[in-house]
Design brief:
two-stranded antiparallel ribbon; elongated; Four Helix Bundle (Hemerythrin (Met), subunit A)
C-alpha cells in the first residue's frame, strides 16, 4: 500500500507545473515525451490489474513456495532501476488516448485509487495465483501490484531524465 501511495505522489509531482511545451518535448525523435511516458503509466495502471484478474480465474499454483519479503522488495526495487531499457508491449505504447494532461491525470488517479482500494479490501488469494512477466518470470497477484508501484517509479525517473536533457524547454 505504501509503495502504491508513494509512487502515485511521485507521478503527480513529476507532472506538476509543466507547460504543454514541456510535456510534449522529446529529447530525440525516437524517445517518448513526458506526456507519452505518463500515458504509458496510465495504460499500465488498468492493464496490469486486468492481467491479475485473469490469473485469478485459473487454478492456483499449488506447488508455489510463498515468496519472502525480500523477494517482494527486490521486485519493487529492481523494476525502478533504469540501467536496462525494455520495449513496451504494444498495448502499453502511448496511442494519443488523452486529449490533455488533465484528462490523463484524472484517468491515472481513478485507476490508482481503484487499485489501492482493491489491495486494501480484497479477500482474493493473490499469493496463490501467478501470471508470467516477460523479464521477471512468474509473479503472484500481489507481486504484480508491487510491480505497478516500481514501474511508476521507473518512469518518474525517466521523466526526470527528460527534464535534465539539454534543450528541455524552460517553460
Amino acid at each position: 500500500m505504501s509503495a502504491l501511495h508513494a509512487s502515485r505522489k511521485q507521478f503527480l509531482d513529476a507532472l506538476a507545473g509543466l507547460s504543454e511545451k514541456q510535456l510534449m518535448w522529446k529529447p530525440s525523435p525516437d524517445s517518448w515525451s513526458i506526456f507519452e511516458i505518463a500515458e504509458h503509466l496510465a495504460r499500465a495502471e488498468d492493464q496490469i490489474p486486468a492481467l491479475v484478474a485473469k490469473a485469478m480465474q485459473v487454478p492456483a499454483a499449488a506447488d508455489r513456495k510463498p515468496p519472502t519479503r525480500a523477494e517482494d522488495e527486490k521486485i519493487l526495487k529492481s523494476v525502478a532501476v533504469r540501467d536496462q531499457k525494455f520495449k513496451a508491449p504494444a498495448s502499453l505504447v502511448p496511442a494519443g488516448t488523452y486529449m490533455n494532461i488533465g484528462d490523463l491525470i484524472a484517468a491515472f488517479k481513478a485507476s490508482r485509487d481503484r487499485n489501492i482500494a482493491y489491495i486494501r479490501d480484497t479477500q482474493d488469494p493473490l499469493r496463490a495465483h501467478v501470471a508470467p512477466h516477460p523479464v521477471l518470470g512468474n509473479l503472484d497477484g500481489l507481486q504484480w501490484y508491487l510491480l505497478i508501484a516500481g514501474h511508476t517509479e521507473r518512469h518518474v525517473l525517466q521523466m526526470k531524465e527528460v527534464k535534465e536533457q539539454p534543450g528541455f524547454p524552460k517553460k
